[in-house]
Amino acid sequence: MAWQRIRKRPEDCIGANLQDYEGYAGTFAWSQARAMLDGLPGGALNIAHEAVDRHVDAGRGDRLALRWIGRDGQASDFTYAALRAQSNRFASLLAQLGVGKGDRVFSLLGRVPELYFAALGTLKNGSVFSPLFSAFGPEPIKARMTIGEAKALVTTEAFYRRKVEPWRKELASLQQVFLTDCSKTPPAGTTDLAAAMAASPDAFAIVPTAPGDMALLHFTSGTTGRPKGAVHVHEAVVAHHITGRLALDLHPEDVFWCTADPGWVTGTSYGIISPLTNGATLIVDQAEFDAERWYRILQDQKVTVWYTAPTAIRMLMKIGADTTRRFDLSKLRFMASVGEPLNPEAVVWGMEAFGKPFHDNWWQTETGGIMIANYPAMDVKPGSMGRPLPGVTAAVLEHTADGGIREIERPMAMGELALRPGWPSMMRAYLNEEERYRKCFAGGWYLTGDLAMRDDEGYYWFVGRADDVIKSAGHLIGPFEVESALMEHPAVAEAGVIGVPDPTAGEIVKAFVALKNGVEPTEALRKELLGHARKRLGPAVAPKDIAFRANLPKTRSGKIMRRLLKARELGLPEGDVSTLESEER
Ligand code: ATP
Ligand code: MG
């Protein structure tokens, strides 16, 4: 099926920050983006100053910065002034206790207000913030805090007792543990955060960090293997800010909801920093995904810009557009998605259910911010990730026989997606893994490890991760294309596609399919899906085999772990599963 281009009408783009992609990208320089921020005296630059304090200094302190919705539905509001005071208290506390510039402060928290105070306070103190998923078990926590040489940790008493205390003595660097919900008898060696913050001054002189000073340590999702600790610097805020402006179209009046957890880079770059630097109101929901709850939040909070992920969109699709239409979502004006390929089916479903498309965008932990995107004032081609951000040079590369690398100019030729280094939020290291970092660069390019194609209008199309691509009878097959074709069938909720070794073809395509609610996994349906795929993709690309699964294995950030499907299929070791979400759902 050829997907119809979604044309933007003039009324779709009224007031959009980016009106003329070509014109703006043609003359853009990063210095322009830097000039939208304040900086600190002497050339210093601090993410938290740009996110919070500069708004207060400019008289916008009483604007709502953060609306936190507790699991029970109760909301707590924090203005920019309140956020300044709370982050100052946390920064003061760190400074008093000897946690200094460059020291790593980890968080192991659900989405609670203290997480936001700690993130911003850590940055103000010149320390490095490293958020962990609260659902991690003791081992992944220990591994990451050891790599990061954690000096401080903010967590809950229950998490501490269960996940940290058993091994704490093995991590000599860890000096301070703050508990957000201390009981009367807190464990030895911990500090009651609420009491300590209450006793700390709410004024703090932000440490004048240099643009190149380390600010954030983010671990990758571990989709393809052992997670890497990507190092980001304060200068990254220049990219956080402008990408929020251009790719998410953030304005100060916006109510913005990023559904990602800050344990993943999206939840920090766009769940904390970017909306705040843009002066918007941030919605944070403590609870996990629940379709009704999410629609209610969109409606009741009058969310205007929503940034979510394909997995969530597919779950909403599973329930159906009738549910969407029960809610008044008239304030919602822009919807974006990241983290995984967004099936064209999902983009088109957005039109049906919300009356507007989802705008896919692409980036990685390593890039620190959005690199390729669909913009409000640019037509959407369902299935395409869009075009590079102004200031970002992307290319599709092929590896030559002599070990070199060369740009492919031909439209729709498949190759490795690469970016020209130099954007402000580019990672500066994989912590303590110099060799792994060095391997990401060749011929003046940063190699993303993803395969993509570029069409004759400069739109990029995701093919798959280099590791996931299937080589079958001389064809290179991207799992995304096969998964998207399966998704078009009304019975299919989700699909994961892998290559299985085959003596004649090299590999054959096998699909794992989760069905929509109420659909029975029968042999007849299996045959029907095989036929549907063959008709859509042709026999060379269509799966030879389909297996039904109640759920597909995913990372905690919602990415299908194809390597795990493969390992299980072949009876191979599962490898690093520290980021695997429980599969019971
Ligand atoms: P690891 O590197 O540890 O295997 P990961 O690559 O999943 O994990 P992240 O940095 O969180 O960790 O994810 C970035 C990757 O997610 C991208 O390289 C790409 O493969 C995928 N991705 C992100 N956005 C999109 C998108 N819009 N379309 C397709 N793929 C995407
Ligand atoms: Mg990766």
Short description:
This protein has 2 domains: 445 residues, Rossmann fold (3-Layer(aba) Sandwich); 103 residues, GMP Synthetase, Chain A, domain 3, CATH 3.30.300.30. It is built from 18 helices and 28 strands.
Q: Which of globular, elongated, flat, extended, rod-shaped describes the shape?
A: globular
At CATH's second level, what is the architecture of the largest domain? Answer: 3-Layer(aba) Sandwich
**Range of strand content:** 15-25%
How many alpha or pi helices? Answer: 18
Name of the top-level CATH class of the largest domain: Alpha Beta
Please report the distance between the alpha carbons of the first and last residues: 32 Å
| Count of folded domains | 2
Largest sheet: 15 strands, mixed
What proportion of the residues is helical, as a percent range?
Answer: 25-40%
